[in-house]
């Protein structure tokens, strides 16, 4: 009975800690010793006692019924007590080990205490009361160690949790600070940009073709800056802003995004193909999802060599809508992959480094997922998933 309970405790990951009846192995080559010892222990305690006359047999039995306490003779033919107990120690790191010795072997026994991790040695002939005290103290210590180990594990788990929370907090703080600075800058730049808009009037009114040409360059720069300012404002708006979502055709949003991109200079020199396998419905803010797809396809196109192909696929599985953007560009090195979505991280001369970060947030706000698979030399695949409603 006690045996089963201690096994149960082991299987459930708990250590013996008091209330379970311990199993005690008594090992001595002399059957008279094992018999008298086990009888005495059984009379005095409710422990489960098992007797063996050879260390090897005891080791075999341990697989099925691991002991909490092992009491072994020192001098035995074949495997002696120290060899036997060190093998027990290797299998049962928490077992309480006691060595029975004659007076002459005391010195070796004392050495074994340290080498093998033996709890106590007991001199033959033993005093039963003394032996019981030693075993009980061993069990108490074992329970204490188990308790400490449990507490330590719990503490370590808490510590890891705290560390994670701290890292997250620092990251959030940094993002918020970057957002505040960026937002202030974006507003100021936006105001000034309105004035740069006069370049358009200059271009229209100037009769001098050279002036018109310069003005055109300024107009183009103004448009790029205005787009950047919009992107930064969008980034800085934070995750708090709410916007309505309604059931929408995801494939239609993708088609619309590709239509917007058709006039993009980078897109014009590459092929973008769309394969609609199914037309999933999802709860979306259509404009936001279009923006995400525009960002992803834009990245894919910019990574592709002129003439290269970007394949966009719309599909649906049990989880919902799935939009895949695949390019055969250079792929991303692990250092780049690790920093994806970090605000202002870009490897492009004219990149804002905001596209993926904003996309990630929009996807989060849709309870979706954005997975990036990329390998240097083999291009990139970005998978956008949105929880689905039902197939349209
Ligand atoms: P930006 O496009 O303005 O640089 P993003 O946030 O969209 O900002 O992307 C950040 C960086 O991620 C890019 O500069 C680029 O290094 C890398 N990246 C994104 N998409 C791809 C892709 N399809 N192939 C290779 N690199 C990519
Ligand atoms: Mg981008």
Give a quick summary of the entry.
The chain is α/β, with parallel strands linked by helices and 392 residues long. It has helices spanning 2-11, 31-44, 55-62, 81-91, 106-117, 128-196, 198-205, 209-236, 250-261, 265-268, 286-303, 334-339, 355-365; strands spanning 23-27, 48-52, 69-73, 96-101, 120-123, 246-249, 271-276, 280-284, 309-317, 320-327, 369-375, 379-391.
Walk me through what this model shows.
This protein is α/β, with parallel strands linked by helices. It folds into three domains: 5-149, Rossmann fold (3-Layer(aba) Sandwich), CATH 3.40.50.2300; 153-237; 246-387, 2-Layer Sandwich (Heat Shock Protein 90). Helix content is 54%, strand content 20%. The protein contains 13 helices and twelve strands. The protein has helices at residues 2-11, 31-44, 55-62, 81-91, 106-117, 128-196, 198-205, 209-236, 250-261, 265-268, 286-303, 334-339, 355-365; strands at 23-27, 48-52, 69-73, 96-101, 120-123, 246-249, 271-276, 280-284, 309-317, 320-327, 369-375, 379-391. The strands form two sheets. Strands 6, 7, 8, 9, 10, 11 and 12 form a seven-stranded mixed β-sheet that branches. A five-stranded parallel β-sheet has the order 2-1-3-4-5, sandwiched between helices. A hairpin with a 2-residue loop joins strand 9 and strand 10. Helix 9 (250-261) crosses helix 11 and helix 11 runs antiparallel to helix 13 (355-365). It is elongated, with a radius of gyration of 37 Å. The structure holds adenosine-5'-diphosphate and magnesium ion (MG). Adenosine-5'-diphosphate binds at residues 295, 299-300, 303, 327, 329, 332, 336, 340, 345-348, 351-357, 380.
């Amino acid at each position: 009975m006690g045996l089963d309970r201690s096994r149960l405790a082991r299987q459930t990951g708990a250590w013996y800690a008091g209330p379970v009846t311990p199993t005690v192995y008594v090992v001595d080559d002399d059957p008279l010793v094992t018999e008298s010892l086990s009888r005495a222990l059984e009379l005095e305690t409710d422990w489960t006692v098992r007797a063996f006359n050879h260390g090897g047999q005891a080791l075999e039995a341990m697989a099925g019924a691991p002991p909490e306490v092992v009491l072994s003779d020192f001098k035995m033919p074949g495997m002696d007590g120290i060899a036997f107990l060190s093998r027990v120690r290797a299998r049962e790191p928490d077992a309480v080990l006691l060595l029975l010795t004659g007076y002459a072997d005391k010195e070796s026994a004392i050495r074994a205490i340290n080498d093998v991790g033996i709890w106590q040695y007991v001199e033959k002939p033993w005093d039963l009361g003394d032996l019981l005290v030693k075993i009980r103290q061993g069990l108490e210590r074992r329970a204490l160690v188990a308790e400490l180990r449990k507490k330590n594990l719990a503490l370590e788990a808490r510590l890891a949790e705290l560390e994670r929370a701290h890292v997250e907090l620092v990251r959030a703080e940094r993002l918020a600070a970057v957002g505040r600075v960026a937002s202030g800058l974006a507003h100021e730049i936006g105001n000034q940009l309105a004035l740069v808009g006069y370049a358009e009037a200059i271009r229209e009114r100037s009769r001098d073709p050279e002036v018109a040409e310069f003005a055109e360059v300024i107009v183009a720069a103004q448009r790029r800056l205005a787009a950047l300012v919009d992107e930064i404002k969008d980034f800085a708006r934070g995750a708090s802003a709410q916007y309505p979502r309604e059931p929408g055709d995801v494939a239609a949003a993708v088609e619309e995004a590709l239509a917007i991109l058709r006039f993009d200079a980078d897109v014009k020199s590459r092929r973008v193909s769309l394969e609609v396998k199914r037309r999933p419905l999802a709860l979306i803010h259509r404009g936001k999802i279009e923006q995400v797809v525009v960002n992803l396809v834009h990245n894919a196109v910019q990574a592709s060599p002129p003439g290269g192909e970007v394949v966009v696929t719309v599909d649906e599985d049990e989880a919902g809508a799935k939009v895949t953007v695949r390019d055969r560009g250079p792929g991303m090195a692990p250092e780049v992959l690790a920093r994806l979505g970090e605000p202002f991280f870009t490897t492009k001369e004219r990149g804002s480094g905001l596209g993926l970060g904003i996309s990630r947030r929009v996807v989060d706000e849709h309870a979706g997922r954005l997975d990036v698979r990329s390998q240097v030399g083999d291009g990139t695949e970005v998978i956008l998933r949105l929880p689905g409603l039902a197939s349209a």
